[in-house]
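Worked example 3. Consider a protein that binds 2-amino-3-ketobutyric acid.
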Amino acid sequence: MNKILITGACGQLGSELTEELRKRHGNDYVIASDISEPKSSLSTGPFEHLDVLDRDRIEEIVDKHNIGTVYHLAALLSATAEKNIHFAWKLNMDGLLNILNTAREKSLERVFWPSSIAVFGPDAQKVKTPQTAACNPTTVYGISKLAGEQWCAYYHNKFGVDVRSLRYPGLIGYKSMPGGGTTDYAVDIYHKALEGEPFHCFLEKESALPMMYMADAVKATIDLMEAPSENITIRTSYNVSAISFSPEEIAAAISGQLEGFEITYTPDHRQAIADSWPDSIDDTPARTDWGWEPSFDLESMTDDMLKNLSAMLKEDE
Ligand code: AKB
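Given these inputs, the predicted complex is written out as structure tokens:
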């Protein structure tokens, strides 16, 4: 049976997707790869050092492990990308093209690539942004995601590469920290709350953004990848939605469970990025085409985050 390769497996989504896919298919069936040293949670199965800008190395790993499916997650997120625009473009575009070309030449069965709500810009409908809203991003990250979506559709239409994609909102999980995103505050806030420290938020209190709990994000990804080809009507990238909240709303949900939690607001350069994105997303095509439905809302996510994160922090003591 052909195996699965995950690039960017040390990242926030990569590490959880690796864990879940190994649970479902067996440890040896899922090859984790990253440019960074492997995290201890990845030691359950094979790991390969991989810079996705190195096409020869990608092909070597694909041949060595008889790879049939790639989840290509290695990329720079929005806030980091704004600080290094040329490298962000290179990594996000050339990395994707290396994977798409490998998939084409080696006739891989399936590729997953993450897009983002960052494809939308300030002129898109803010609330319940539809799948087909105008995509005029004002960040280099958003520009790279929009171009990436078009490359995915092109490789599918021209060369028959079965590449599938989701426009993720901010992802929130307790197992690992995100790195370099604008939505990262919504993970950090739980850590500070449990450490008994005040949280200094880099966004304004009313700045609502689309978000999703990690369990839902992993489920959406695998559900999309397991859907029959004929159900996939969108070959750019699907809107997927779960929760939408502002910093003051997540703070209120935490305060409901943890007495004495304090938050202050000092918006920085990331506020402009947040302001350019939707407040919430409409994901009707994902629901219709492959049955997408999230399980977690703000309350149930907060409950699960605080329970699991406090258990983890206790273990580390
Ligand atoms: C980011 O904040 O950059 C990401 C995203 C919404 O794509 N979490």
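Take a moment to read the result before moving on. DSSP finds eleven helices and twelve strands in the chain. Residues 8 and 34 are 5 Å apart (CA to CA).
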